[in-house]
Amino acid sequence: MDPVRNPYAPGAGQRPPELAGREKQIDAFDVVLERISRGRPERSVMLTGLRGVGKTVLLNKLRSAAIARKWGTGKIEARPGQDLRRPLSSALHMAVREVAPAHRDPEQVERFLGVLKSFALRATADKAMRERWQPGIDVPAVKGRADSGDIEIDLVELLLDAAELARDVGVGIAVFIDEMQDLAPEDVSAICGACHELSQGGAPLIVVGAGLPHLPAVLSASRSYSERLFAYHRIDRLDRESADRALTVPAGWEEVEFKQDALDALYEAADGYPYFVQAYGKVVWDQAAASPITTDDVRVASPLAEDELAVGFFGSRYERATPAEREYMRAMADVAGDDGQVATALIAKELDRKPASLSPARDGLIKKGLIYSAERGAIGFTVPHFGRYLRAQAD
Questions:
Q1: Domain range holding 335?
Q2: What is the C-alpha separation between 217 and 129, in angstroms, rounded?
Q3: Which single residue of 94, 108, 194, 238 could bond 21 by disulfide (Cβ 3.0 to 4.6 Å)?
Q4: What is the pLDDT of residue 139?
Q5: With bands split at pLDDT 50, 70 and 90, how would you rate the model's confidence at 127?
Q6: Structure pTM?
Q7: Which are the contacts of 259, defined by CB distance < 8 A and separation ≥ 6?
Q8: What is the pLDDT of residues 11-27, one digit of tens each?
């Protein structure tokens, strides 16, 4: 069929044409926005799940919902070793620019921007460097607010001021943080502390984070009350009805149909993971001769889709690992069976090594985002079917 008309979109963070199976999370967020707009306290939101389940897509969808209500929004993607101040300053600057035109007191807006500038400039320790680097905020810095150098104190002051600005306009502010597990521990602690202050005062500002399955453990390690501070949503694979809808609705727009046995084969191949649904759907469309798409089309296209995934989705991650880390992952794959979590003691036994000697490889893989540890003594792959991929490579 015509590849130009192909409706499927297997890309990192790229929204699929039909965002199926996420209605529960979208509806829950609409309630959060409505409650805050009525002056009622609400918790910030955390989305967790493996790679490829659509966390970034959902995060962007929630941001769109906030924008539709005239909220100020900003988004950042956390990176290991990155200081929080600069990207957060840019995100809040964007959010305030969206709110400012409706504000009746330009001087208050300008004062907040001065506070924001002071907060941003503290990211640079060297005084001479601070004088040369500017965060793109064209107002004088306001000294004595959000510039102590203590990220927790400064973040509380900054977000409370931002919330007050939004309250005066009758809207809210939402800060969206992707890959939140990669924030430094002190930044995680600061965000938890700030969210605690905001929720206690019913301030119209929330943080919406997304991260790997161990994000709740990261937050809990920072603040023991974090399990009560955030509303957690575990994002998982699609059920059968949603996966079928993700394929058939976009195809229907192009007047293309699927045979039922083709949908059966596609669900078995993709296992309900949204990225895989799009990846298989795209290749099957390109290989099919005509509508309706049949199980023979899926059979012919599946090896091509698997080859693409092996290079782009799995292989690119595998190449980032050192030889010792690859050995560790292969042992994980051999022990995992269904690709679930694996006891680290079993991996050591598989490799006939002492657990302590494997710590550098395990820690390196965690830092690279290839594995995660959601509970003590157990680890899992952050990418679905990664163990299956490694076992296939060994055959």
A1: 321-388
A2: 36
A3: 238
A4: 82
A5: low
A6: 0.92
A7: 292, 293, 294, 295
A8: 878 899 999 999 999 99
Side-by-side strand order, sheet with 173-178 = 72-77, 173-178, 205-211, 44-48, 230-234
| Cα 132 to the center of its chain, rounded Å | 33
C-alpha 289/C-alpha 255 separation (Å) is 14
Whether 17 is covered by a domain: the verdict is: no
At 143, give phi and psi (nearest 5°): -85, 150
Return d(Cα 329, Cα 331) in angstroms, integer: 5
Which among 140, 147, 144 has a CA at the least distance from the CA of 124? 147
The amino acid that residue 164 corresponds to is: E
The Cα–Cα gap between 103 and 89 comes to: 20
> Pairing state of beta strands 230-234 and 173-178?
unpaired
Structural domain contains residue 11:
no
Domain boundary residue among 183, 213, 234? 234
Arithmetic mean of pLDDT over the chain = 92
Check whether the bond before 292 is cis (ω within 30° of 0): yes
Q: What percent of the chain has pLDDT over 90?
A: 79
> According to the per-residue pLDDT averaged within each range, which of 123-132, 141-150, 202-211, 225-234 is highest?
202-211
**Tokens linked to 66:** 């906030």
Q: How far apart are CA 290 and CA 122, in angstroms?
A: 61
* Distance between first and last Cα of the chain: 34
CATH number of the domain within which 339 lies: 1.10.10.10
pLDDT tens digits, 266-319: 999 999 999 999 999 999 999 999 999 999 999 999 999 999 999 989 998 999
258, 248 Cβ separation under 8 angstroms: yes
Residue 14 lies in a domain: no
pLDDT at 115 over 60: yes
Residues 230, 271 within the same domain: no
- DSSP string for residues in 53-100: S-HHHHHHHHHHHHHHTT-EEEEEE--TT--SHHHHHHHHHHHHHHHG
